[in-house]
Amino acid sequence: MQHIVDRLRAAGCVFAEDEAALILAESSDAGMIESMVSRRVAGEPLEYIVGWAEFRGRRYRVEPGSFVPRHRTGLLVDLAIARCASGAVVLDLCCGSGALGAAVADAVPNVRLWSSDLDARSARLNLDPQHVFEGDLFSPLPEALRGWVDVLICNTPYVPTAEIDLLPREARMFERIETLDGGSDGLDVQRRLASEVRQWLAPGGVVLVEVGAVQARASAALFAEHGLAATIEVDDDTETTVVVASN
């Protein structure tokens, strides 16, 4: 195992020991192990190599190119859970693997979960495919959902275009650019979300979005402009910021 750890460490993998152990746990075939190590050394996300990502104690299938769920997004999930009653209708837009919505549904009884993404391959492997849609924001959703969503979570791409090159190589080289690039100020997708979201929310419904700390006030203002009451929540430990906007 040590030679694998050394190769991963030399490639800049911070958690080389853990990654080596995981690769060895996934395969006993020497050729497959070598292939997996070589892919990781080349910068490919470990989640694509092993085929899954862990989030909130569960494994989710992650297809190459799909957005890999980040543990810091647990703040968004916790805030959604706190605002979610039994039997609530939950909508996860820009859902990626579907992990965020699934984590809410795991925590709250009888949640009716709907999910959508431009690329729904991974979500369809992890969730009920009949409730997973593929397309841009609200466009693929059934009309019957309009006005009935109690909790809407949306981890939109929010990295400003000029900062994409500053991301870790795992993200900038392998994740689809559409999952990362939020336009010149990082808020292009949130502008479109804010302009449409009220017609999908139930009375008293809430939308939660993750943002960068420097974007938070501008993001909250977007939702306020469209008639929602917006607040900003921060987790200093994970350096995570979420805007919560209520109907």
Can you describe this structure?
It is a single chain. With about 250 residues, the protein is α/β, with parallel strands linked by helices. About 35% of the residues lie in helices and about 20% in strands. The protein is built from ten helices and nine strands. It has a seven-stranded mixed sheet, sandwiched between helices. Strands 1-2 form a two-stranded antiparallel ribbon. Helix 1 (about 1-10) crosses helix 2 (about 15-25) and helix 5 (about 75-80) packs parallel to helix 6 (about 100-105). The longest helix is centred in the first third of the chain and has 12 residues, at about 30-40. It is globular and about 60 Å long. The termini are far apart. The mean pLDDT is about 95.
Topology record:
Elements: H1 2-10, H2 16-26, H3 30-41, H4 46-50, E1 52-55, E2 58-61, H5 74-82, E3 89-93, H6 99-107, E4 112-117, H7 121-126, E5 132-134, E6 149-154, H8 169-174, H9 188-196, E7 201-211, H10 216-225, E8 229-235, E9 240-246
Shape call: globular
Rg, Cα atoms, Å = 19 Å
As residue ranges, the low-confidence spans are none
Average of pLDDT? 95
Query: Which series of helices and strands comes N to C?
Result: HHHHEEHEHEHEEHHEHEE
Strand order of the largest sheet: 5-4-3-6-7-9-8
Largest sheet: 7 strands, mixed
What is the terminal separation in angstroms?
A: 54 Å
Class inferred from helices and paired strands: alpha/beta
The beta-strand count equals 9
The helicity comes to 25-40%
